[in-house]
Amino acid sequence: MGNPHPEMVSTLSRVQGYGPYFAQAFGDARVTRERVARAIADYERTRMSGNSAFDRWQRGQGTVSDSVRRGFDLFTGKAGCAACHTPPLFTDGTFHNLGIGWNPDTRSFTDEGRYAVTKDSVFEGDPGSFKTPTLREVSRHAPYMHDGSIPTLRDVVEFYNRGGIANPDLDDRLRRRGRLGLTPGDANDLVSFLVSLEGTGWQDNGPSLFPQ
Between the CA of residue 49 and those of 72, 87, 136, 139, 190, what are the distances in Å? Predict the structure, then answer.
């Protein structure tokens, strides 16, 4: 939430409308870091996705456009996206540094990501590393990257096409591949493929009212 834990707890505790929810879930109205984490985790487990156009095509139960087919070929081939966004969940569940938030003047990140927790610069805790998100439903949830700094999926594709943002801890895969050499048509096809991951048969409507 962009706050240290004590400030987050203090902020939520001042919202009286949360009290009954915490009491119902945990037995009393106290807001704690651990309870907030459990509540968010329970909510995240309700986010489901499936039966997308891509899924039906893969099962042999439907068709997709030629653009989607080309996009999938690029995704698993030339563009190398599947190395980290591994099907069928379209995530490898690990952490990577793409250079988002890097300031070359101060040689630091706006948000250190995983490193702020682990202080580990040897394995998957390098500064600027964030967990690979699933790409299912990705077309429904702009803007992109952990800080919302990239507005559209096409812009995300172009970001990777440029090879990310150079910094001392840039992910090795991006460092090795460098610029991808994708054409404008390639970028369009990749976006078409990503849109084909929109699931069906479930709801994802945000709340219209919030606790006061």
Answer: 19, 13, 7, 13, 20
